Amino acid sequence: MDVRRWRCNQPKNMKILNLYAGIGGNRKLWPEGNQITAVELNPEIAAIYKDFFPNDEVIVADAHQYLLEHFREFDFIWSSPPCQSHSGCNYFLKGQGIFRYPDMSLYQEIIFLKYIADKNIKWIVENVKPYYEPLIKPTIKLDRHLFWTNFVIIEKEFDKPEVRHNKVTGKTDRFGINLQGIKMKHRKDQIIRNCVNPELGLYILNCAFNELKQMLVEK
Ligand SMILES: C[S@@+](CC[C@H](N)C(=O)[O-])C[C@H]1O[C@@H](n2cnc3c(N)ncnc32)[C@H](O)[C@@H]1O
């Protein structure tokens, strides 16, 4: 294997799967030159993603099922399953007499990626810090997220967004992302709040590829 060529080419020409894509906060700073497939269930949100990232393939589908059927087609998989059923807001809902189970698809995906998916696929599953002890120990906590991965991520601090989480409105520009001028039925504040800090998204992608570089160099 020509190691030098591999090093020069990183992180280009990677096939990346962006599951539960939202409007692509985590993806915003990913470099061009990679082949990115985004899966988002909500067509309205998927259309905005496509508008932001016209070169990505955007698929309106159930990301959980898509992972099972297509994981082998990718070098890197990012999954951001919905966090509502795991977050602290469930205590608040409890106070209002609203009860729900945590959605176990989060752990299904972690277990699947860790034990069944091919070892050469780099993967990351992202979620919030849950209101309970995580059933599977996360690899790292960065910012307000927990991450489960099969590569090393070194601790790093990220600037806090100017607008605090609970102050976000439909008009907020957060991380350079805003939905002003876009007509839609879905709550804009929720969509913006869902966005992962793009700096964090890029940092994690780089961690995955840097480790790959090291692995290739050592061979
Ligand atoms: C936490 S947000 C993703 C945020 C995204 N990673 C970012 O940084 O902008 C989760 C997204 O998953 C979508 N979603 C929920 N269930 C889904 C499913 N079964 N398949 C695909 N997308 C789904 C929601 O509409 C929402 O946009």
Structure at a glance:
The protein has helices at 3-9, 43-52, 63-70, 89-95, 105-116, 188-194, 198-218; strands at residues 15-19, 35-40, 57-60, 76-79, 122-128, 140-142, 145-149. It is an alpha/beta fold and 219 residues long. It is globular and about 55 Å long.
General description of the model:
- The chain is an alpha/beta fold.
- The chain is built from 7 helices and 7 strands; from the N terminus they run αββαβαβααβββαα.
- It has helices at residues 3-9, 43-52, 63-70, 89-95, 105-116, 188-194, 198-218; strands spanning 15-19, 35-40, 57-60, 76-79, 122-128, 140-142, 145-149.
- The longest helix is centred in the C-terminal third of the chain and has 21 residues, at 198-218.
- The radius of gyration is 18 Å and the shape is globular.
- S-adenosylmethionine binds next to β2 and α3.
- The site of S-adenosylmethionine (SAM) has 21 residues, from β2 and α3.
Strand line-up across the major sheet: 3-2-1-4-5-7-6
- The N- to C-terminal Cα distance equals 9 Å
What fraction, in percent, of the residue positions are helical? 25-40%
Mean pLDDT: 91
What's the shape?
globular
**Total number of β-strand segments?**
7
Count of separate DSSP helical elements:
7
Low-confidence stretches: 1-9
